[in-house]
Amino acid sequence: MTPVKILLVDDEADTLQALQLGLEDEAYAIFTAASRNEGLNRIKSEELDIVITDLKLKDGSGLDLLAYLQEQQPQVPVIIMTAYGSIESTKVALRSGAYDYLAKPFSLADLKRIIAKLVEVITLRKENERLKLLLGRRTDAPVVIGSSPSLKAVLEMVEQVAPSRSTILLTGETGTGKEVIAAAIHKKSPRADKPLVKINCGAIPENLLEAELFGYERGAFTGALKQKPGKVELAHQGSLFLDEIGELVPAMQVKLLRFLQSGEYERLGGTAALKADVRIIAATNRNLEEQVAKELFREDLYYRLNVITITLPPLRDRAADIKLLAYYFMQKYNEINSKAIEKIDEQVLTQMMTYPWRGNVRELENMMERAVVLARGNELKMSHFPSLIAGMEGVEVSLGPLAGSSLAEIEKRAIEQTLRYCNYDKQKSAMLLQIGLATLYRKIKEYQIEES
Predict the structure, then answer these.
(1) In what order do the strands lie in the sheet with 100-103?
(2) 176-198: per-residue pLDDT in tens?
(3) CATH of range 316-391; options 1.10.3720.10, 3.40.50.300, 1.10.8.60, 3.10.20.80
(4) Residues 267/274, Cβ–Cβ less than 8 Å
């Protein structure tokens, strides 16, 4: 991610240098200006995220910079610093649109706290804009949202296997996005300009599945008034996605195995051997090895399907992606329902981080759709998520007795227990503690917290 760009404006060289050095360890991109005019030029030449300016400058006022930004770049927040701390100057700065106000002398920790809060808002806004762009594109390209290590590993595997002709088996819990990954594999393959045909093996009655998969001839059964091609034929030179492959009955397993071995099949009611060039992508939420051991799934078919396996992580193991997915679905259902919801309450996002998500991404999408449809304001709040509230009953992190403990001891204990509760997932822990990720890393180092 591009580092947050911060402009510091102060005509006192020592102050400017101290602020620059104090903020550089936070991985921000820091720019400096020693006057009003220099600051204005920097604002015009750089795409800044935050401006921190002294109120009194030798050639003008920090309020001049604030006024320019309010008119030209209102999305850029401004923090005003001043040694002339008074109620009146505070009121003027805040009335003029300043995000916050610091009276000199102030601690670097106070400034960092304000910036950390702003960075969360800025990061969310930028991601929001990116998701709006994705939703605005008229394309059927699959959208994979997230940047967690477990999802990145899946996407790296997709890139590696997509160009091949090999059969792919996608495994994972229900709702983890196997169909989206199947579409991504197809789109990145040499077959991308040919059809991706999908069939859910568990949703079609047993007596109709063969006809759906391989097609049928006229008169093959009552009501078969004309010949109909099956999914295999429609997918010729493209990809065939067999969802819920673990639901296939033994008779269909035999027929599918024959097709995988030879590329040949027969329409129901026909005798001619037909051929199709199809890349198979199968998916299941079942453990096929256990099914084979119980003789519910053919071993030879399992090995034909299990050439390359990609296991999709459950949402509870993708904590870093929950906020991104929630905002993506918010924008999606804003578009569908002509809504203009802008924000999700922080309490909702915090609760989402520890919710079990038994239905995974699909459950999150359903939850977000319901919330968007029922919401009347421009913010989604806990009251819009009854399932989330019910699912969180009884979930808490106990900190034990606090009486007699110093604030530092309480803070250390809270961080230690939250890290343990979240299996040392720092992104998730930071969300629960309601602090920035950089702050969490700093506290771990400060308190010498061991990670195990």
Answers:
(1) 29-33, 5-9, 50-54, 78-82, 100-103
(2) 999 999 999 999 999 999 999 99
(3) 1.10.8.60
(4) yes
Give 403's pLDDT tier (boundaries 50, 70, 90).
Answer: low
* CATH 1.10.10.60 boundaries in the chain: 407-446
Alpha carbon distance 125, 174 (integer Å): 31
In this prediction, residue 138 carries a pLDDT of: 45
Task: Tally the C-alpha atoms within 13 A of residue 383's C-alpha that lie toward its C-beta.
Answer: 5
Would you tell me which CATH number, out of the four given (3.20.20.150, 3.40.50.2300, 3.30.300.350, 2.60.40.1530), belongs to the domain 5-134? 3.40.50.2300
- How large is the C-alpha radius of gyration of the chain? 29
pLDDT band at 135 (very low <50, low <70, confident <90, very high): low
Phi, psi (rounded to 5 degrees) for 363:
-65, -40
Helix ranges (DSSP H) in 137-240 = 149-161, 178-187, 206-214, 231-234
CA dist 255 and 271 (Å) reads: 14
State in Å, rounded, how far the first CA of the chain is from the last one. 28
Structure tokens at 158: 């997709």
| CATH 1.10.10.60 for domain 407-446 | yes
The beta strand positions in 266-368, using DSSP E, are 274-275, 279-284, 308-311, 343-344
Written as one letter, the residue type at 387 is S
The DSSP letter of residue 115 is H
Q: What is the pLDDT of residue 244?
A: 95
Contacts of 205 (CB under 8 A, 6+ apart): none
Q: Tokens 């890290």 label which residue?
A: 419
Please give the pLDDT value at position 402: 58
* Whether pTM exceeds 0.85: no
The topology under which CATH files domain 149-313 is Rossmann fold (3.40.50)
- 364 Cβ contact list (under 8 Å, min separation 6): 315, 322, 325, 326, 329, 352, 357
CA 120 to CA 435: how far, in whole Å? 10
Which residues lie closer than 8 Å to 41 by C-beta, 6 or more apart? 33
Of 137, 135, 118, whose CA–CA distance to 49 is shortest? 118
Helix spans in 355-425 (H): 360-374, 386-391, 407-421
Provide, rounded to the nearest whole percent, the portion of the chain with pLDDT above 70: 92
Spatial separation of the C-alpha atoms in residues 257 and 177, rounded to whole Å: 26
